[in-house]
Amino acid sequence: MTFPALKTTGIIEMTVPNGNCVQPVVFMKVCLLGRLSYLTFHVVGRVLCQLEPCGAVEVDQAVKAAKLAFGYWSKMSGMERARVMIEAAHIIESKREEIAEMEVVNNGKSITEARLDVDSARLCIEYYAGLASTLAGQHVQLPGGSFAYTRREPLGVCVGIGAWNYPFQIAAWKSAPALACGNSMVFKPSPVTPVTAVMLAEIYAKAGVPEGLFNVVQGGQETGSLLCQHPDVAKVSFTGSVPTGQKIMEMASKGVKPVTLELGGKSPLLIFKDSDLENAVRGALMANFLSQGQVCSNGTRVFVQKDILPEFVKEVVKRTQAIEIGDPLLESTRMGALVSQPHLDKVLSFVDRAKKEGATVLCGGESYVPSDPKLRGGYYMTPCVLGNCTDDMTCVKEEIFGPVMSVLPFETEDEVLQRANDTSLGLAAGVFTRDVRRAHRVVEHLKAGSCFINNYNITPVEVPFGGFKMSGIGRENGQVTIEFYSQLKTVFVEMGDVDSLF
Ligand SMILES: NC(=O)C1=CN([C@@H]2O[C@H](COP(=O)(O)OP(=O)(O)OC[C@H]3O[C@@H](n4cnc5c(N)ncnc54)[C@H](O)[C@@H]3O)[C@@H](O)[C@H]2O)C=CC1
Ligand SMILES: C[N+](C)(C)CCCC(=O)O
């Protein structure tokens, strides 16, 4: 596929994770630099599309278009912006199935999960539309009738850089607060999952945002760096790995630009012997197997109090083995395909290494070939539970980003807290117990940005989400995120004479 207006710096090839292709040729409208163009995505074997990454010229065009749109959008009242955003949410609702199906093709996750991702995106846009009209400053009385007031102002052109695990949802979680505050955004999806962010751009355009307000540029590392270094970019919001997050922070520091970083995790889930076992098992599955285990907040270190370990392991293995793997477009499927062949290989190599280091594979951990011949080329694996794990094993220390749960026994609360916190990451953590005092005491000591008591991996858009330590900076969702997409201007107003010292 070519885009004549673009300079070619290489080709991004997108393969279909599930091995299947819904349609031989998918026609899509692609919104780039605020204009709409029709492009054709040809399927050759399992290649869904080839995209030309944007170079310096296109990145500059996108930022310029966003800057122009910012001029209009930032002058509108919050209520006016809210109206357009609500319209975008309505369009998402009406296209729920279409977007979800495309997300399945894009990412490989099950249609059931893809629908929930689309819902989360819509709710996020609705939520920030609601907040748009509440943005306000403060009035501060000063001596002699003088006063000061603060204005909450947008930052300007914000850049969003997305990961491949929640492509549509991430684009919404970043653009909704940005747009609500009066900013514009240039968004770069992961080159592995380039498709659905474009659908969001189309939806915003249809809802009536000024042309160029939300632009999608395609590309990988180079395009991402160009965006971060562009002098007219005011802020970068990134979701992805820790090493890339560090690079982004470094680039942003040159222009003293604020960053939001949603990075990796190796989160602990603490299951005490007084837990409701049924809920603890459900929680452990939710903590490990959503999106084929490719979730930053996953609770992959499952610490289980020794007394209930055999019972817990038996049940968790039974449920894991029952997870239906296969065609992600089927209603009954609960686990689809991993995102790419190299990623599948990487996850499987973590399982191999775990075995070598002494862990026991209690179930799964192998590549899986679905019986349906059209899915044969897909990147499937059986979800894995590892037993006999110890804190020094690679599977317990490193983010695997696949369906691999490590189970670790513990004896006391103090011991498990010390072990749970013994990591440079701190995105999420969870505790299962019926003892209300223990639950709150434990979360007080857990060094993680998002803590769950008796549940795991729920992310209502009304509450902030983000990490401690190397898991990131800033928050997404919730009221607080307004502060990460706006700046305060203080205005001093003198009502008397200038009291000069000179
Ligand atoms: N915590 C999380 O949510 C995620 C973690 N990961 C982890 O990272 C590993 C690698 O996955 P990748 O997709 O390669 O993650 P990545 O962090 O390299 O890429 C994420 C995004 O950043 C862009 N990017 C890469 N280098 C850049 C640079 N120098 N400047 C600006 N943008 C840049 C990519 O094109 C992509 O859009 C995974 O195997 C997984 O372990 C991946 C995705 C999400
Ligand atoms: C929605 N949830 C909690 C499963 C994942 C959200 C964070 C991410 O982008 O990985």
Automatic annotation (TrEMBL):
Gene3D superfamilies: Aldehyde Dehydrogenase, Chain A, domain 1, Aldehyde Dehydrogenase, Chain A, domain 2. The keyword Nucleotidyltransferase does not apply. Transmembrane segments: none annotated. GO terms for molecular function: 4-trimethylammoniobutyraldehyde dehydrogenase activity; aldehyde dehydrogenase (NAD+) activity. Pathway: Amine and polyamine biosynthesis; carnitine biosynthesis. Keywords: Cytoplasm, NAD, Oxidoreductase. It is found in: Cytoplasm, Cytosol. It catalyses: an aldehyde + NAD(+) + H2O = a carboxylate + NADH + 2 H(+); 4-(trimethylamino)butanal + NAD(+) + H2O = 4-(trimethylamino)butanoate + NADH + 2 H(+). The keyword NAD applies. SUPFAM superfamilies: ALDH-like. Residues 45-491 form the Aldehyde dehydrogenase domain. The active site is at 262. InterPro entries: Ald_DH/histidinol_DH, Ald_DH_C, Ald_DH_CS_CYS, Ald_DH_CS_GLU, Ald_DH_N, Aldehyde_DH_dom. Its main location: cytoplasm. GO terms for cellular component: cytosol. Belongs to the aldehyde dehydrogenase family. PANTHER family: ALDEHYDE DEHYDROGENASE-RELATED. Homotetramer. Converts gamma-trimethylaminobutyraldehyde into gamma-butyrobetaine with high efficiency (in vitro). Can catalyze the irreversible oxidation of a broad range of aldehydes to the corresponding acids in an NAD-dependent reaction, but with low efficiency. This is Aldehyde dehydrogenase domain-containing protein. It comes from Astatotilapia calliptera.
